[in-house]
Amino acid sequence: MDRRTFRCNGSVAHESLRGSVDGVDFVEGELRSVSASVADLLTEPAGALDRQLVHGDGFCVLEEVDDYAFGFAVPSGFVGYIAVSDLREVAEPTHRVTTLGAHVYASRSIKTIPVMALPFGATVAAADQGDAFWRVADGYVPEQQVVPLRDLETDAAATALRFLGVPYLWGGDSNFGIDCSGLIHAALRAAGQDCPRDSDQQEAFFAVASGHTQRGDLVFWQGHVGMMVDADAIVHANGHHMATTVEPLDLVKARILQAEGKEVTSIRRP
Question: pTM value?
Fold first, then answer.
């Protein structure tokens, strides 16, 4: 009955819950795509920020409540409410943004005012214009900033390091603002790896690391996670600096122990 993955709001439920809950309507839902640069996933209509989805992410709508859609993110399964205005009919993506942000222009010129900014990892259905731009739903993106979906990042730690200095944002999932588990989620998704969204889910999902700690290993505390960049240091989005930083693991261990009384709970290997 974890609220984050329980596909029911007391009014409707996903078909997968048939036989498990009573007194609700069961629906398969309608898959849509995130049309905003970044969409807030809320705990309730006009409620608190829980997580975020980036442009092109899938969202299965189970019910519309006023100006909000209740449903779950695809593929992570995270449940919540998104503004209906941040969604549109699903379009099969072909490319993803590989730079730390990209601008969409109304015309094939970088000297015009952008119509929107796309974060790292955003996906688009793109058509080659043959003139250094790709046509997407909202305009044109320079070809240097997108790659085919099949072109995956090969080093998750290197991807996480690209977020250095990005401001910390609880529930954030992009280079506009990111939290500790969002950083891990973004880095591993870019490498084509399945990854739950929250740190406790990630800790349960990945196997315990064997042998010596290595680059790419995940270090967990209760409510926090970072990724090893070498044998001694981690990259992590953290509220202490309100940014993504690289620090010696021993320093982070000591600070969290002193401030919160928490020890490392495990080291996992994606």
Answer: 0.94
